[in-house]
Write a structure and sequence with these properties.
- With 316 residues, this protein is of the alpha/beta class.
- The chain is built from 14 helices and 13 strands.
- The strands form three sheets. A six-stranded mixed beta sheet has the order 6-7-8-3-9-10, sandwiched between helices.
- Strand 1 and strand 2 form a beta hairpin.
- It is globular.
Length: 316
Amino acid sequence: MIEIDAITKRYDDNTVVDNVSMVIEPRTVTVIVGTSGSGKTTLLRMINRLVEPTSGVIKLDGEDNRAIPGHELRRRIGYAIQGHGLFPHRTVAQNIATVPTLLGWEKSRIDAKVDELLTLFQLDPKTFGPRYPHELSGGQQQRVGVARALAAEPNVLLMDEPYGALDPIIRAKAQEDLLAIQKHFGTTIVLVTHDMNEAFHLADKIAVMDKGRVLQYGPPEELVRAPETPFVETLIGDTERPFRLLAIAKAGAAAEPGEAEGEPIREDKTQQEALADLLWTGRSALPVVSASGAPMGRVTLDALLKRATRPSGSAR
């Protein structure tokens, strides 16, 4: 758990982060969004003390992060940035092994962890371990950067615009990789982005920042249904709000009794994907099945369109 209590950061007369308080639950993905200069990166970097706060307290599992020596704290918290930051003169395996080596792990344990992470990221250890960063594609470099951040088995992973430089197809794959890895390790992830689609896809909770303050912090559906300020409503995209609900909710939640013809959709797919399937195939309904393939009923075009009607909540 990360407890952020009345954190403020000032540079002379400029307040970059202004009295922010929020609790990040363990084993969740929290995404911080906002415009450029809103303070989101500074807030992120105060968690691992790359930036020291002017006032306030940040606790990790109840322990004040100021009580932990900075170098030790940063070895305990993974950190991945846009452009990956790999050491060009070290191989992929050596890059991933950086923090475990500093921590004095035995070579056999380090080698096993490098192989495990490369395999999880679908990079064959024998093929990619000996390569150097310049021999990798941008997407591969980014995966290695995240693998390096996870190598010492941190409870917390901080990510600052990690996928900003990737093209949309590679970016989508990298996001799926991240969700799979987070589920595998149970890591608490705090990610900064300016991409609202990325935020809604990844987040358990979203914090919206503007001018150093957190304007709203909550689950994606809450932000869509009840944005608390005009800024939040604008950032989400007023015309897109109804369809964001479908992108958040799962097809299984819209299943109703009945049968339908054709290829089924799995319950864990989004309602947005179900709607797209119906529109592309010209059907009025499609079967819904569980992850194991058991029938769960059907989802209809009419029901999904009703769910996509404009939310009644508006900015307060």
